[in-house]
Amino acid sequence: MNRYCFCLQVRKDRLDEYAERHRDVWPDMQAALRDSGWHNYSLFLRDDGLLVGYVEAEDLEAAQKAMAATEVNTRWQAEMAQYFTGIDGRPPDESFVLLPEIFHLTPSTED
Fold first, then answer.
1. Which residues of the chain have pLDDT under 50?
2. What positions carry a catalytic annotation?
């Protein structure tokens, strides 16, 4: 399984609302993510709007394409776009800035 980290910028005036929307992500959206190969997916939001995401997938590009083919993702991305800056009219899930992994602590043989 590959690990991916990405960032996006949430509008400062919409931080609370964006966080609130993620307290109750639609069950069909969660199912689509799982079915499309997204694993161990987390979002972290800093108070200046920096959104950092972490996800594990066999192939992120394939997982993104599978999500793009779902109706629920089309609806979710359309609703989420209003919360971001710097995405230039693209859906948020097509605007990720991937961060390179520079260190990973592997489990010891004693674990």
1. none
2. 22
